[in-house]
Design brief:
About 35% of the residues lie in helices and about 15% in strands. By secondary structure, it is α/β, with parallel strands linked by helices.
Length: about 450
């Protein structure tokens, strides 16, 4: 009798996977809290919230109850010409929490589409304003905003997108203003903003996820947004990963003194329960689409736009996220990450430790160049699985982004795996070369 993994291998095609050489996938049959339980009963600690989506733990009873109630009331209705209470309530609650500039909500179904909506908002905003020549976007090098064509265009050019480069629209890349590089990056920004065709600046606020959890400070980002606004350039905050408490506050943009014009959300939006995307914008952007001319409308939509069940899941997750108990969980994880970072920083085999909120990244130093496809990356991945932990290393960078319910003992297991990875790196390092006078 075939196992679930064998049946999977016969019919499925997995993301970011070379199907010819990849081992069989691990079949998961249920989840509880921070744990995933496999078909054979093996338990795996989910150290990355299953691609950053799960906030409160798997199969959370409060979210499950709210989803069940919604399913027995209304499962779906088209969102063109119709509406429903969960969509209205979610928009009302989010706008009350977001920076004051945000005034309207546009629903989609994942992070890439939330970004696509934002890009189209910017381009058509200037088209409706009689400035169609403004079509260039500014982006950070090493950024990632999704896998649809617009989202790929404003993401770093790399191995994952190389087959599509001829089809991506041109953008202007600037460096990430990491500590010590702020003045140089501001100079790059000023040079880019001198071009009259620049329309928008899209960024991951404070943390670039797939770049290796590269982090920079809110002060320099606020200054960048201020300079963009001086030139009439619209700012898009991609909070798909950073939203809903990951960086400390509910939203990374809350730490800014200059606010974005457009914001993108997904991943933690529903607490990891259902697929959903959401884009918000400031009132002037929305108003630029209002006209007696129907051709000035935003012609974008998805079959499952504002799905009521997904909205119900998001409302339930948001209720949990806003509770004092969740804030205490996030503070506890943040403090534990900080303590562990202090412990290992500067040790042999450690190049850097980065930490913000519930995100911890350890950049290991194997003494050679590394990449996502490196042998060390695969060794890290397998080492974690051998210790019953799910991690997804980014080359020589290993990050933790656990569900907020993760206990102190579970965090200790994650840290133990990171310590073991340091030992693995030391094994990878070449033996030191002896000076000539010490040779026989």
């Amino acid at each position: 009798m075939s196992t679930l993994a064998d049946r999977d291998h016969a019919v499925l095609w997995h993301p970011y996977t070379q199907m010819q050489t990849a081992p069989l996938p691990i079949p998961i049959v249920r989840g509880k809290g921070s744990w995933l339980i496999a078909e054979d009963g093996t338990r795996y600690l989910d150290g990355i919230s299953s691609w950053w989506v799960n906030l409160h733990g798997h199969a959370h009873p409060h979210i499950a109850r709210r989803v069940s109630e919604q399913l027995s009331t209304l499962e779906h209705v088209l969102f063109a010409g119709f509406t429903h209470a969960p969509a209205v309530e979610l928009a009302e609650q989010l706008l009350a929490l977001l920076p004051a500039r945000q005034a309207r909500v546009f629903y989609s179904d994942n992070g890439s589409t939330a970004v696509e909506v934002a890009l189209k908002m910017v381009l058509q905003y200037f088209h409706n304003q009689g400035q169609p020549q403004r079509r260039t976007f500014l982006c950070f090098r090493d950024s990632y905003h999704g896998d649809t064509f617009g989202a790929m265009s404003v993401s770093s050019r790399g191995a994952f997108t190389q087959p599509f480069w001829p089809l991506l629209f041109e953008v202007e890349f600037i460096d990430v203003p990491v500590p010590g590089r702020e003045a140089a990056v501001l100079a790059q920004l000023d040079a880019a903003l001198a071009r009259p065709e620049v329309a928008g600046f899209i960024f991951e606020p404070l943390v670039l996820g797939t770049a290796g959890m590269v982090m920079y400070e809110p002060e320099v980002l606020s200054e960048m947004l201020r300079r963009c606004h001086q030139r009439g350039v619209l700012a898009i905050a991609d909070e798909v990963m950073t939203g809903f408490g990951r960086t400390g506050p509910l939203f990374a943009s809350a730490l800014l003194t200059e606010q974005p014009d457009i914001m993108c959300f997904s991943k933690g939006l529903t607490g990891g329960t259902l697929a959903m995307g959401l884009t918000t914008c400031a009132a002037p952007i929305y108003e630029a689409f209002l006209s007696d001319d129907k051709m000035r409308a935003l012609f974008h939509g998805h079959s499952y736009t504002a799905n009521p069940v997904a909205c119900a899941a998001a409302l339930a997750s948001l209720e949990l996220t806003r509770a004092e108990a969740c804030a205490a969980q996030r503070q506890r994880i943040e403090a534990a990450h900080a303590a562990f970072g202090r412990e290992i920083e500067g040790q042999p085999g450690i190049r850097a430790v980065r930490h913000r909120g519930t995100i911890l990244a350890v950049e290991y130093d194997p003494g050679e160049g590394t990449s996502y496809f490196s042998r060390l990356r695969d060794a890290f991945y397998q080492l974690a699985l051998d210790h019953h932990v799910v991690l997804r290393p980014l080359g020589n960078v290993v990050y933790l982004l656990p569900p907020y319910c993760t206990t102190a003992a579970e965090l200790d297991l994650l840290y133990a795996v990171l310590r073991r990875m340091r030992e693995l790196v030391l094994d990878f390092l070449p033996a030191p070369t002896l000076p000539e006078y010490l040779h026989d």
